[in-house]
Amino acid sequence: MVSPIGIGVGEFWKAALEGRAGITAIESFDPFPMDLYRCRVAGQVREFNPAQYLEGPMVERVDRYAQFALVAAKEALADAGLRMDQVRAHRVGVIMGAGMGGMVMGEREITQLYQTQRPNRVHPNFIPTITLNSASGIVAMVYGAKGPNLTISTACSSSAHAVGQALNAIRTGQADVVITVGADASITPLVFAGFCSLRALSTGFNDRPEAASRPFERQRDGFVMGEGAAALILESLPHARKRKARIYAEVAGYAATSEAYHMVIPREDGVEVATTMKLALDDAGVTPAQVDYINAHATSTVVGDAVEVKAIRQLFKSRADRLAVNATKSLVGHTLGAAGAIGSVACALAIDTGMVHPTRNYDDPDPACALAGISTQVQQRRVRVAMMNAFGFGSNNAAVVFKKFAA
Fold first, then answer.
1. How far apart are CA 136 and CA 275, in angstroms?
2. Catalytic residue positions, numbered
3. Whole-number pLDDT of residue 55
4. pTM confidence score
5. Cα–Cα distance for residue pair 17/356, rounded to 1 Å
6. In the CATH scheme, what is the code of domain 2-403?
7. Which residues contact 294 (CB under 8 A, 6 or more apart)?
8. What dihedral do alpha carbons 356, 357, 360, 362 form, nearest 10°?
9. Residues β-bridged to residue 390
10. pLDDT value of position 56
11. Cα dihedral angle (149, 155, 156, 157), rounded to 10 degrees?
12. pLDDT under 70 in the chain at which residues?
């Protein structure tokens, strides 16, 4: 995990259970004055020094989002006790979700090109660094994973699909292990300005950054952009048992749909979101009555949050108010392509620890979004089945189902 509330799963989870906010003011987009930006807060990974975690050329030659991905993958592999010299390299894949790719280097190079008017001085690694699959390729090369190597880019649902496609790769026998990563680092002058122009970001809490991301709450006024990465090791059960791996949870089901409706707004009746969740449950072989916890997409937008709750009520009916529901984005902001992987880690940890982290800033519940299971406090629950939702621009929906593993 690389997140605005901690680098490393332990640090992240401790902060999450405390309900700690990782949203802070953006100090500068030099040379642009910050008062020209309607939103001036974000979930930033502060004091990140790649040299503390990485060695050799990866410290300086790759984009920030790829550095995040490498650090998260390194931690996940160590936690899993997976030694690449003891497995078949062609049976280990890398599937990654990324929404924007190498935007830090991309913006820097295009700015320098137009300022200097010297096309012969563009960085020689510009192209392989900014491509969306650069991080997945780098992770595979660093760790010697020679199985399927894929990058999925479906905006905010990217790494949810990466988890789902990793599940499918193992189910269909393409791999025994998949290093599954979500990463984005796009708090850059141009990308941030674009989201501001789209009027998607919160603007009412520039003087109180920690209060800006408030899913399901009456005063929410847009999402807060974040950055970070999370990695999970997905593994077939026989392979995991053979090496006596620690198992946090079973990835049990997955669904991917398109609303075919609008580039940035979900259908307001919630039918398509409910359908996606139902398909994921069907794939997992569980019923709505068996679900204990939902890690909601919950970006803190006026329309999106209400639609997701409407869909939850449609599918779960009277059980909707008995579910534990939380919004990780209330703590870290919306990390775009990394959001699904971060939510997946939260699901696995909730199953493993029996604790559901609080939703921050849920002070005055919006009646259109109110669910009894949303809480500003830690909830101690026996979580046997968890669901993670992720919806992206381009009318894209994903849902992943996790189960407590029964040995």
1. 31
2. 156
3. 83
4. 0.97
5. 7
6. 3.40.47.10
7. 312, 323, 324, 325, 326, 386, 387, 388, 389
8. 10
9. 398
10. 79
11. -50
12. none
